[in-house]
Amino acid sequence: MAQVLEFKLPDLGEGLTEAEIVRWLVEVGDVVTVDQPVVEVETAKAMVEVPCPYGGVVTARFGDEGTELPVGAPLLTVAVGGAAAEPEGSGNVLVGYGT
């Protein structure tokens, strides 16, 4: 049975507390792999592609393009598990994010 994991907007470093969704790179129902970029966000300092730490099927996206989200707000949910699932979680860590 698939487990649904919530991926939250990570701390993008340098004291930034929010980011604006510029462009979604995945749709609900898409299969994503570990560390695949899923959304482009813009902070006060840069445009960043945010990679998902989970592999599975996107079950929900939170926020439309142009929406500002605080760090820690849900970005999307991913159903992981089953025969086609990726290993759970990524070994990579974004600066200031942690696992």
Could you explain the architecture of this structure?
Helix content is about 0%, strand content about 40%. The strands form two sheets. A four-stranded antiparallel β-sheet has the order 1-8-6-3, with no helix packed on it. A four-stranded antiparallel β-sheet has the order 5-4-2-7, with no helix packed on it. The chain has one domain (about 5-80): RNA polymerase II/Efflux pump adaptor protein, barrel-sandwich hybrid domain (OB fold (Dihydrolipoamide Acetyltransferase, E2P)). β4 and β5 (about 45-50) form a beta hairpin. The protein is elongated and about 40 Å long. It is an all-beta fold and about 100 residues long. The model has no long low-confidence stretch (mean pLDDT about 85). About 20% of the residues are buried.
CATH class annotation: Mainly Beta
The CATH topology: OB fold (Dihydrolipoamide Acetyltransferase, E2P)
Structural class: mainly beta
Task: Figure out the total of helices.
Answer: 0
Number of domain units: 1
Note poorly predicted spans: none
Work out the number of β strands.
8
- Strand percentage, roughly? 35-45%
What is the overall silhouette?
A: elongated
Q: So, CATH architecture?
A: Beta Barrel
Gyration radius, to the nearest Å?
13 Å
| First-residue to last-residue Cα separation | 24 Å
Widest sheet, order of strands: 1-8-6-3
Outline the biggest β-sheet.
4 strands, antiparallel
Helix content: under 10%
- SSE string, helix = H, strand = E? EEEEEEEE
**Mean of residue pLDDT?**
87
